[in-house]
Amino acid sequence: MTRVKKGLNALKSRRNILKQAKGYRFGRSKKERAANEALVHAGTYAFAHRKDKKGDFRRLWNVRINAALSPLGFSYSKFIGALKKNKINLDRKILSELSQDNIEVFNKLGEQVMKKG
């Protein structure tokens, strides 16, 4: 059986790892083992924080909606409850955008919903 030398593949994988770790500090951008470890951790954090981002945005939308409802004298929870009771299927993202961009429309919606509910 012929001898297989791994030099080419080893260099290729090392080059790819170091290319991905470019910009990392200290040995993490220059040493293969440290770079590989840093990339594994970076991937884990990236995955977890993509999930966290969804919750962060939902909290932001809730705060914006509540801030727009305060001058009307309504609370966020009562408003959302009234929307569900009246079967109005607007999600929090859309409500948040309405409260920022079209405050008149949002105020009308709020007053209408709170009268019924």
From TrEMBL:
Biological processes, Gene Ontology terms: ribosomal large subunit assembly; translation
Top-level taxonomic group: Bacteria
A GO MF label: rRNA binding
Pfam families: Ribosomal_L20 (PF00453)
Keywords on record: Ribonucleoprotein, Ribosomal protein, RNA-binding, rRNA-binding
Role, per record: Binds directly to 23S ribosomal RNA and is necessary for the in vitro assembly process of the 50S ribosomal subunit. It is not involved in the protein synthesizing functions of that subunit.
Stored NCBIfam families: rplT_bact
Name used for this protein in its record: Large ribosomal subunit protein bL20
Originating species: Candidatus Zambryskibacteria bacterium CG_4_9_14_3_um_filter_40_16
